Sequence to fold (255 residues):
Amino acid sequence: MKKAAVVTLVLFIGAASIALFLPANLAQFAVKQMPGIDAIRFGGTIWNGQTTLIVESGQTAKLSWRLAGLTNPQSNEIFGLQPSFQWTLGNADLDLKGTLDLHRSSANLLAEGKIDSSVLTPILNRFDIFLSGHFLLAPSQVTAPYDARSLEEVSLVNPTTLTWSGGQISYILTGQYNQIELPRLVAHVDKQSNQTVIANINDGSNNAKLLDLALNRDGMIRVRLNRRFIDLLAFPWPGEQEPNDVIIEVERPIL
Fold:
């Protein structure tokens, strides 16, 4: 019996030692689940490591993570297991941080931080929009199953806000190139019953909507401009529409 106990103890210690030093490049499996993203230059371990992420547009950012805890008293898993990681993602134009909680069949991601407008250039260019300034993302939480293959399977947990600092904006409207300075704008982001994520945007001083963006589950994004926003752009627009009336609507694929 004593011999069996010793063998069991040795095997347990050995397994724990191996798990402790598992290489960081095992995280490559998780990266491969994210379309349009690759990873290189892994370092450290699976519990405390770093890598460089590359997106299809060619932008890169350093991702670092460390284990913050293995259990959660509120977890329903055996022994309360629920690994939680703290992470940071950054480059010259990006400074994000948050946590990643791993459940049995899904993951919960919390993120917040600063994003330079240049990071969003590949998306904004599809709408003939060019921005200066930066964005501040309030703590935002999403959840998704491990086998998620599209945006349809990613859910926004709670409403959040994304604030643009204001600055110069260039755009093409009705075939004309225009440039103007705009004040700070605030996007209030929430999800609808059909899982569509919608952002209602105002100038932060009141709830008067200027425009809204809707991200559909099929990866299409729809932008609707209110007459109030056209007036803010000081763009001459014919007609007698009310400030809340939608006068321009554009739809493009985001991916």
About this structure: Residues 107-255 form one domain. DSSP finds four helices and 17 strands in the chain. The mean pLDDT is 82.
